[in-house]
Amino acid sequence: MTVIAKETLIGKRVPKLDAPPKVSGEARYLQDIELPGMLFGKILRTDRVHARILNIDVSAAKALPGVHAVITAADTPNVPLGIGRDNPPLKGDKVRCIRDEIAAVAAETEEIAEEALRLIKIEYEDLPAVFDPAESLKEGAPVIHDKHPDNIPFTFEYSHGDISEGEKESDVILEEKVKLHYVTHCCMGVSGIIANFDSEGNLVVYSQTQIPFMYKKDISPVIGVPPEKIHVIQPVIGGAFGSKLDIYPFEPICIFLARVSRRPVKMVFTREEELVASPTRQPVELTIRGGAKKDGTLTFREVHTVHDNGGYTSWGATTPFVIMQTVSSLYRVPHCLYKTTVVYTNNPYSGSFRGYGNLQATYAVETHMDKLAEALGIDPLEFRLRNAQEEGETTPQGMRFHTCGFRDCLTTAAEKSGFREKHPAYKSGQEGPVKRGVGIASLLHVGGGAKIYRTDGCGTMLKVDDFGKVTVMTGSTDIGQGSETVIAQFVAEELGLPIGSISVINNDSEITPWDVGVHASRTTFIAGKSAQLAARKARMKLLKVASEKFDLAPGQLDLRGGQVVRAEDGEALMDLGKLIRSLHFSTKNDIVMTSEYYEPPSMMQDKEFKGDVSATYAFGTQVVELEVDTETGVVRILRVTAAHDVGRVINQMGIEGQVEGGIVMGIGYATTENLVVENGKVMNPSFRDYKLITAPEVPEIDMTFIETMDKEGPAGAKGIGEAPAICISAAIANALYNATGVRFYELPLTPEKVLRRLREAGGNGA
Amino acid sequence: MHDIKRYLVPDSLDEAVRAAAEGDVTFLAGGTDLMPQTRTGARSFSSTLINLKQVPELRGVSRENGGIRLGALTTVTDVLNDVVLRKAAPVLSQAADHFASDQVRNSATIGGNICNASPAGDMIIPLLLLGAVVELASWNGEAVGTRTMPLEEFFTGPGKTQREPGEILTAIRFPVPGEGFTARFVKFGTRPALDISVVSVGIAGVKENGTLRRVRAAFGAVAPVPVRGRNTEAALEGKLLTSDTIRQASEATQEDISPISDVRASAWYRRELVRTLTTRILNDVSTS
Ligand SMILES: Cc1cc2nc3c(=O)[nH]c(=O)nc-3n(C[C@H](O)[C@H](O)[C@H](O)COP(=O)(O)OP(=O)(O)OC[C@H]3O[C@@H](n4cnc5c(N)ncnc54)[C@H](O)[C@@H]3O)c2cc1C
Predict the structure, then answer these.
(1) How close B101 comes to chain A (CA, Å)?
(2) Does any CB of chain B come closer than 8 Å to the CB of residue A689?
(3) From the CA atom positions of chain B, what is the Rg in Å?
(4) Contact with chain B for residue A630, Cβ under 8 A
(5) Coil, helix or strand at residue B43
(6) What is the pLDDT of residues A574-622, one digit of tens each?
C-alpha cells in the first residue's frame, strides 16, 4: 500500500514561477517581440508648457526615405482619453504640458523615425502658463481647458459627525500643512506597445496594460475600433506599480500609425521619455487640523488637500478616494471633514501609483498623530493604541473590519524594535553631530479589492488534462508581483498536485475570462479566490467520479500528490490522469473543465463616499530607526521593523519580497526620489539625477506577519501589494523628530533639505 | 551617430596623432562620458571617430625616475587594483573606490576623466593633491611632439581644457610622495553608491610634529573647474593643527570656491558641505 501524506503549499516559500525564465532570459518582454514587416514609431513631444499650435509642417518628414507614416491630430478622430476625457492623443490646437504629443512617425528603423521627427516644424504662440495650483485658482489665471474655466476638474467632499462638536471637546488642537512631491514609477521595463491590424481589420495590441479588458472598452472610442475587434496580448511586463492602469496617448498613437502604414508598429520609450512622459505620483498639499482630549482620545480631524493635476486628468485625480479612507478610518475619529480641490496646471500629470494617494494621506495623518501625542504628553505608541480600530467595528465611512490586526501590528512592531525604550532615550538628547531616532507609523488600506465599478470580480477557467496537468486561465495580470505563483498555489492545494503541474495563462484577452484589472491590491484576494473556487469545483467533480469508482463517499476521498487517495489513511487509489481519462475513454463523454466568476461581498460607495468598498482591510505598522548627521543632513536608515496584518501568508517568499520592495520604494519616496519639475519642465530625466535607492541604502528589514485569517479571503489571505510602501515616510519623519526635535513638512528628505530645515528650525522648532 | 564618417582604431601613437592631425576628430576611450553626452545631444561627434583603446603607448602604470606614470587608458578599475599605486598613492585608490559602479569603472579611463574636464571629475582632485602633470602628444609635421603641463593649469572651464583639438593626452605623471605625506579625499554624493559628486574635498600635506607643511587642498564640483584651495592652504601651512587652525582653514575654503545651484544641490549647500567636510578631514588628520 502506498500512503500519501497530506501536504500543503500554503504559507511555504514557493519560488516565483516566472523567476527561471526571467533569470535565464527566456521571458519575452514587449521589447523582445518582432513581427514581420514591423515599423518603429516615435512621438514628437512639445518643448513648450502652454502654447497654441499655429502650424505643423510634416512635409519634410514625409519625404524622408524609410518613413511610412507621419500623423498629426488632423489625421485622427481626435477623441480625448482619460477619466476626464480631456486628453486628445495628438494635440492639434494647443499644448498644456511638457510631454504633449504633437506628431508621430512610423519608419523602417528607429534612427529614421528620430530623423523624421527632427524634420517636423511647428509654430507656436506661447500662452501664459501656471505651475502653482494656488495661482491656478486665482481669478484671471490662465485657463488650461476651456471646459473648466476655473481650472478645477474635480472636487471631493466627505464628512461624518460635526467638526464644531469635536472642537468643543478638544483639549488640544493642532494644525499642520505638508507638501508632497512628484515621483515616478521607474519600472525596469520602459513603456511600449506593438499594434497590428489583420486583413479583416481586427486589431492586435501587444500591451503592458494592467487592465486588459477595460483597456478594450476604454480605447475603443478613441481609436474608432469596436471592442470586439480588439485583441490584447500582454507579453511579460517589466513592472507597472499602477503606471499601466490607464491608457496614455502613445497607445492610440501607435495604433493610428499601424492603421495608416498598414504595418505592425512598435513603440518603446527611451528612459528619458519614460521619466518625462509617464505618469507620476500626484503632488499634494495637505492641511490637517485635528484635536484630542487629555486622555488621548481623538476628537475630530479636518483635512483639506489641493492636488496639482497637471495638464490633463488621469487616475491621479481620483486618489482622494483613498486619502479619505485613511483620514476617516485609520483611527477612530468621531468628527471628520475632508475636502479636496483638484487643480489644472501646466505641469506633468499624474496617474495611479502603488498606494494611490495613501502615501500622501498617511504622511499627513501619522506625522500629525505624533505631534498630538507630544502635545498631550502621551507616548506615541500609547496614543495610537488608544485610538486604533478593532475587529468588528464599522467606521463612520462604512468600512467593516471583520478582522483587524491593527493593535497586534502596533505592539509587535514596537516590541521587536525596542520602540518603547529607544524613543524616550533618544529624545532626551544625544552628544555629537550624528543622532539616532526611532519613529512609528501605521496604515490602513483596502485588502479585498475595491468596488469602484459595479463589479470587482475576476473570472477563472480551469482545465485538468488527461495526464493531470492543470491549465488555469485567469483574467488577472501578473505585473511582477507574483500573482501567477499564488494562483497556482491555490489550485495545487485544492487538487493535491505539485506546483509544477499547474500552468497559469494570464496574458491573452481572447483566452482568459474577464477581470477588472490589477489594482487596489486585489489580485491574490480576488483572482486567487476565483482560482481557488474554480479548482474546488474541479476537485468536487473528480472526487465524485472517484467515489463511484471506489464506492466511497466524496468526503472519504482526497486528492494528494497527483493521486486519488482514501482520506482516512492516505492510501493511493488511482492516478489522477487515469481517473480523468476514464471520463472520455468511455461512454461518460466528459472532461474536467470548470469556471468561476468570483465577486467579493463589497459594495460601491454612495454619493457621500460611504460604504464597505472592500471585502477586507489590511493594516500595518512600521518602526524606523535611523541616524542623521546634523552637519550634512545625511539620513541613514538603520532598521525597519514591520508588522503587517496580511490575513494569512500564502507564499512566504513572495510576501517578503512585496514587503521589502514596498519598504524600499517608500524609502525612495521619503528620502531620495524626486522628479524635479521647474516651470513645468522635468529637470532630471535620467537615473543619474533621479535617484533611486540602491543596495547600500537598503536597511535591515525585520518583518512579522499578523495572521488574522480573513474569513472571506482565499485561505484567509488579505491583499498586501500596496501596503508596505504606505507608512514608511511618516515613520522616517517621526524618527527624525525623535532624533533632532525638528518636524519635517516636505518630502523628500534629501540631505540638503534636512540640513536646511535643521538650520531654519535651529534645533528647537516643531 | 549619423555624423560619423570615419572610424579609426590606430594601433600606435604615431598613427593616432597623424590621423588626428587631419582635423575634425573625436577621441573615444571608455566612452562613459562620450556616449551619454552624444546620446542626449549635449555634444555631437566630429566626422572622424578615433578609438584610442588599441594604442599601446597609452596603457600601463609604471614607476620611472622617482615618479609614477599612468597611461591615459588606465581604467578606474586598474587604479583600484594596482598594488604600486595603493602603496604609493592610496588617496587615488580611495577615489577610485568611490567612483561610479564596477561596470563603469571597468570602462572609464583616467585620461577620459581628465579630458572630460567635469568640475566633478573624481580622479582629478587626488591627482591635484599629488602634484600631477599631464603629458600631451600631437603631430608636429614630422614626428610625434609632446608637451607637459601641471594638471591644475590644464582646465579652463566646464568641459574645457588647454588640449588642442588634435592633441592626445598620453599620460599623467606625479612624483612619489615622500615620508610623512598624508592625503585625504572625501566625495559627497546624496547617496553612497553610484553618484556624481555634489562636492568633493581633498587635503594633503606632510605632517610633522602636529603641523602640516607643503599643504595642498583641492575641491571638486564647487567651481567651473576642479580648483586648488590656495586660501585654505595658506590657513594651514606650517601651523599647528589646533581647533582654531582647523576652524580658520574651514572658513578659508569659502574664499576658494564659487559653487552654483543646480539640480543636484544649491550653492548654499555646497558651501556648507565644503566647510563641514574640511573640518572633519582636518580633525581626522590631527588625531591620526
Ligand atoms: C553611470 C555613470 C557614473 C559615473 N560616475 C562617475 C563618478 O562617480 N565620478 C566621475 O568622476 N565620473 C563619473 N562618470 C563619468 C565618466 O565615467 C568618467 O568621467 C570617466 O573617467 C570618463 O572616461 P572615459 O574613458 O569613459 O572617457 P570617454 O567618454 O571615452 O571620453 C571623455 C572625453 O575625453 C576625451 N578623451 C578621452 N581620452 C582621451 C585622450 N587620451 N586624449 C584626448 N582626449 C581624450 C573624449 O574625446 C571625450 O571628450 C560616470 C559616468 C557614468 C555613465
Answers:
(1) 11
(2) yes
(3) 19
(4) no
(5) coil
(6) 999 999 999 999 999 999 999 999 999 999 999 999 999 999 999 999 9
Domain with CATH 3.30.365.10 in chain A: 284-450+605-761, 457-598
pLDDT at A766 over 90: no
Flag residues of chain B having pLDDT under 70: 1-2
Task: Give pTM, 2 decimals.
Answer: 0.96
Residue whose C-alpha cell reads 479571503 in the numeric block? A713
- Residues A227-244 have a mean pLDDT of 97
Share of chain B above pLDDT 90, in %: 92
Taking phi over 0 as left and psi of -120 to 50 as alpha, with beta for the rest, A251 belongs to alpha
From chain A, pick out residues whose CB is under 8 angstroms from the CB of B263.
676, 683-684, 689
Cβ contact, residue pair A756, B269, below 8 Å = yes
The residue count of chain B comes to 288
How many angstroms is it from B115 CA to the middle of ligand 1? 8
How far apart (Å, rounded) are the C-alpha atoms in residues A460 and A471?
10
Q: Is the pLDDT of residue A644 over 80?
A: yes
> Containing H/E element for A205?
strand A203-207
Q: Which residues of B touch A632 (CB under 8 A)?
A: 188, 272-273, 276-277
- A-B CB pairs within 8 A amount to 48
Nearest to B225 by CA among B161, B163, B155, B273: B155
Pairing of strands A284-292, A94-95: unpaired
Which amino acid residue places its CA nearest to atom 32 of ligand 1? B112
In chain A, residues with a C-beta closer than 8 Å to the C-beta of B195 are: 691
Nearest beta carbon to residue A697 from set B2, B191, B265 = B191
The domains of chain B, with CATH numbers, are 6-51 (3.30.43), 57-175 (3.30.465.10), 181-287 (3.30.390.50)
Q: Cell triple for residue A275?
A: 521619466
Angle between helical axes of A728-740 and A652-667 (0-180°, round to 10)? 50
* Ligand 1 atom showing the smallest separation from residue B36 Cα: 53
Domain spanning A284-450+605-761, CATH class: alpha beta
CATH superfamily of A36-127+190-237+244-277: Aldehyde oxidase/xanthine dehydrogenase, a/b hammerhead (3.90.1170.50)
**Contact with chain B for residue A702, Cβ under 8 A:** no
- Taking residue A199's Cβ as centre, other Cβ atoms within 10 Å add up to 6
Q: Is B25 in the pocket of ligand 1 (CB under 6 A)?
A: no
Summary mean pLDDT of chain A: 97
Q: Whose CA is nearest to atom 21 of ligand 1?
A: B113
Q: Give exposure, A6-37, as e/b (b: 16+ Cβ within 10 Å).
A: eeebbbeebebbbeeeeeeeebebbeeeeeee
CB contact under 8 A, B193 and A756: no
| Domain A457-598, architecture per CATH | 2-Layer Sandwich (3.30)
How many CB atoms within 10 Å of residue A39?
A: 27
Distance CA A349, CA A679 (A): 14
| Chain A neighbors of B266, CB-CB under 8 A | 752
Interface predicted TM-score of the whole assembly (ipTM), two decimals: 0.94
Mark yes or no for CB contact A694/B188 under 8 Å: no
A208 in Cβ contact with A244 (< 8 Å):
yes
Percent of chain A past pLDDT 70, that is, above it, reads 99
Ligand 1 atom at minimum distance from B189 CA: 8
Tell me whether strands A681-682 and A298-310 are parallel, antiparallel or unpaired.
Answer: unpaired
CA of B113 to the centre of ligand 1 (A): 4
Q: Is A47 on the interface with B (CB under 8 A)?
A: no
pLDDT at A763: 52
